[in-house]
Amino acid sequence: MIIKTVIKKGAYFDSVSLMQISKKINSIKGIKDSAVVMATKENKNIIKSSGLLTQEIEKASDNDLAIAVKGESEKILEIALKEIDKMLSGENKTGENKKDETVSSIDSAVSLNKDINMALISVNGRYAGGLADEALDKGLNVMIFSDNVPLETEIKLKKKGLKKNLLVMGPDCGTAIINGAPLGFANKVNRGNIGVIGPSGTGIQEVTSIISNLGGGISQAIGTGTRDVKDDVGGITTVFGLNMLNEDSKTGSIIIVSKPPQKKAMANILNAAKKIKKPIICLFLGSDFESKEKNIFVAKNLYEAALKALYISRGESEHKAKEVIFDEKRKAQYLAVEEKKKKNKNQKYLRGLFSGGTFASQSLFVFKNYGMEVYSNIPIKSELKLKNSMKLEKNSIIDLGEDEFTFGRPHPMIDYGLRNKFIEEQSKDKEVSVLLLDIVLGYGSNLNPSADIMPYIKKAFKNNPYLTIVAGVTGTDMDPQNKKELMSDLKKEGVFVFENNYLASVFAAEIIK
Amino acid sequence: MKNNLFKSNIKVLNIGVKSFADGLKESGVDVVNMDFKPPLYGDFTVWGKVEKKIKNIEKANLKALDIIKSAEPFLVGMDIAINVIPGMKKDLILHAGPPIKWENMCGPMKGGIIAALIYEGMAKDAKDAERLASSGKIKYEPCHDHNCVGPMAGIISPSMPVFIVKNKKYGNFSYATMNEGLGKVLRYGAYSQDVIDRLKWMEKVLYPAIKRALSSAVEIDLKSMVAQALHMGDEVHNRNRGGTSLFYRAIAPHIIKTSDKETAYSVLEFINKNDHFFLNLSMAMSKASLDPVCGIKNSTLVYVMARNGTEFGIKVAGMGKKWFTGPAPVPDALFFPGYTKEDANPDIGDSAITETNGLGGFAIAAAPAIVQFVGGKAGESINYTLKMYEITVGENNIYKIPSLDFRGTPTGIDLVKVVKKGIMPFIDTGVAHKKPGVGQVGAGVVKAPKEPFINAFKEFFN
Fold it and tell me: Do domains A117-172 and A189-317 have the same CATH topology?
């Protein structure tokens, strides 16, 4: 061990800075110990015990800076001394006093930012309710992305919102677009005069994207949370949202995207809808709801809901939607006929692998309308429930966003891993004819969809050259992902790509039927 | 009130998934991120009770804060401990932190007691002192239970001289010994002959001189002194250079007036050489300011935080004099050459009374000279202070921080806020060697442990 000493005459540094330097120097490999101190009597005593008190330091006075380093070699000591010089001269300091933008509580957030008007809450469901309650007390509108919030809490929060005239979206609200701001999983869409409301996150993403892609625009999209249309909640947020959209001068027409509401909730919603003069397009997916009101229009699928709203908002007839869908369906049928010719006779079945729950449901209803029975983890009839959601049989469609798959794993819209595994597995099944997929773009979703899915698409075709892969892509050219590139990559490999789930499902059904 | 959301610019408070904020920022939306921490105690039935009582609690806490803010602590004199400290006895030694038995005491506290017994003449050497200390003939009680505070080991024995601080507004008193300086000193558990000699000199020379001077100066307004010290770069816990200078200025003329030349010189030089001389006064004045809130019904304001080197204890206004404790953490510190974290004793001392009073770590934004303890950047020390506003009842009216545009320091730790937000009080601290007799080995910062707060919270809402 060698000790090296340097004395800097009359150089004052505060002791804490010096301790900090010493701490850093001691972490250099090969340095045994160091002392960087003002040479006061007390400090001399302290370093005496560590054996660093050299004669030079002994002679130094109160106002001198004493540096002593003990290490393995001359070279290491040189490095250490250079480092000390650098730190003493402050070279390693950036000099910026960056103030933290992060706050620790709703209290301080609101007191420091009086203009906050929306809380987006995505913490563990155990705590989401309490935070939402606090946010409401502070006069904020809330969106609760979190699920697993108790039903009673949801009811309490929504009643409080009603009393305070604040919007409560969720719990389990995946998507909203407020004043153009994408909240949660949402697409970048044109702003316009169509308002959207409903419990279905991917449903809202689909209709807002379709409208935007066809040149229309969205005023507001309000998520309600999946349980809003249950009788326990009674459609509180759906009704509240309808009234907000009614008062909003920039909203011309309104779409409701929902699974069929329960009786009481339905009555509340229709009662509110009746009082509104603006046209309302209702999609209650899978129900045979019929309208008795002049301003209430019925759509049977997401594509139709989007088109009807678009034409109505342009002052055209809602009937045009039917014509467009008729044309598109015919095109899909022709394509299907051609594709079917390539099939061998063992290829019989459909396997739908979905990341969006509403897409899985909509596909199930499309196949039901073709008179085909499809097994699922979210079946239309209970006898069609898959015994094992990991083992697909005959025609089957699975929603990979269900709790059984997402436990301890990111949502399949973010992490493609699980579905990729399914794609590979299903392509090895010689009885499979069609793989039906959804790819959902937008904020919150996987940012590299093409890179993540293409290798598995290629593998699938390699395993089964006669396989048909159909994908419905939800999103816009303004989304953070590169939609154009994704679609051309898919097409290049031979995937049939549709810009909505309905047509993709129709095409798949035409092949299987 | 109408909902104007659609007519306003949207500004989002994002609580949870951070990437949601990125998407919003990219779309040109204003976002504030909130760093959410789950509460320290997760029983929701208890939180239901909190909700029911919260209005009464807030009212009681504001009342307590007003009492703290209106305190008028003055240094009014000095005397020998046994003459003035309530309940002081010949066989009683007071120590820092919550109650503890001899066998559970840490090294530095045992060392301090050994020093005190030798100083008192009750033992002739360390061995003798240890025998007596463990014999059961000596009683040990917390300083805090006798209106006292003591830094580090916090040892007060019957014949030690003490400062007398009076809160004139509420008529209560507090007491503290004089600060011995740095290095090998009793409060860090050192008991060698030079330590005893210094204590004797303090008793025979320093104490009478200051006592005489005080009777000439009448009294010193400590609150105003602390307020000024904060503007001189002190937070009056780990940095007391400003406070000591102010005290020196106030006392020096009177010492010269009332002592002979040689005594005056030695006394003034002693104060001058010890930057921490003011620490014991900032502690005693904090104690005197806080004590009157004891017993305020429904108040969750924490009015004592103290450590004995083994355990960390707190007292809560609404629960009177009861201690709530948990294990004391080892501070995150910068060490003197030759020492490491291995040598460090768990946190010790009553000096966290300064933080409890809205000073010390709570006011670290006022003390740029010691920001190295918190990572070396002035901005970071500001963030530490800002964070403490999250867990306090309010802001001080007298103690102000220049770098925060003279905002009052965060004052009055609220037990409910601590447990709810999971933000722990931030304390500046010195570090003692874990072996008795070695002394100070470093200085740094420490976060109060969770257990005492959780225990107090559970009992409060039981």
Answer: yes
Query: Are residues A117 and B30, on separate chains, in Cβ contact within 8 Å?
Result: no
What are the boundaries of each domain within chain A?
A: 2-88, 117-172, 189-317, 328-512
Distance CA A486, CA A473 (A): 9
Q: Give yes or no for a contact between A272 and A286, defined as CB atoms under 8 angstroms apart.
A: no
Nearest CA in chain B to A117: B11
Q: Is B152 strand, coil or helix? A: coil
Mean pLDDT score of chain A: 91
B187: closest CA among B105, B101, B116, B291? B116
CA dihedral over A57, A60, A62, A68, signed as positive or negative: negative
Ordered structural domains, chain B, with CATH: 5-36 (no CATH), 50-68+292-460 (3.90.1700.10), 73-285 (3.90.1710.10)
B16 CB neighbours in chain A (<8 A) are: 120-123, 145-146
Instruction: Compare all CA atoms of chain B with the CA of A444 and give the residue at the minimum distance.
Output: B20
Q: What pTM value is reported for the model? A: 0.78
Instruction: Reply yes or no on whether the pLDDT at A230 is more than 80.
Output: yes
- The DSSP code sequence of A169-223 is E-SS--EEEETTEEEESB----EEEEEEEES-HHHHHHHHHHHHHTT--EEEEEE
Q: What is the mean pLDDT of residues B308-320?
A: 97
CA gap A426, A431 in Å, rounded: 9
pLDDT by residue (tens digit) across B26-55?
889 999 999 888 888 877 788 889 989 999
Chain A contacts of B442, Cβ < 8 Å? Answer: 19
pLDDT tops 60 at residue A97: no
| Residue B54 sits at the chain A interface (C-beta within 8 Å) | no
- What ipTM was assigned to the predicted interfaces of this complex? 0.81
pLDDT at residue A12 in the model: 66
pLDDT tens digit sequence for A401-427: 887 887 667 789 988 989 999 999 999
Name the residue in chain A with its Cα closest to that of B387. A104
Q: Which residues from chain B sit within 8 angstroms of residue A22, using beta carbons? A: 334, 337
Query: What distance in Å separates residue B130's CA from the closest CA in chain A?
Result: 26
What CATH number should be reported for the domain whose range is A189-317?
3.40.50.261
B372–A93 CB contact, under 8 Å: no
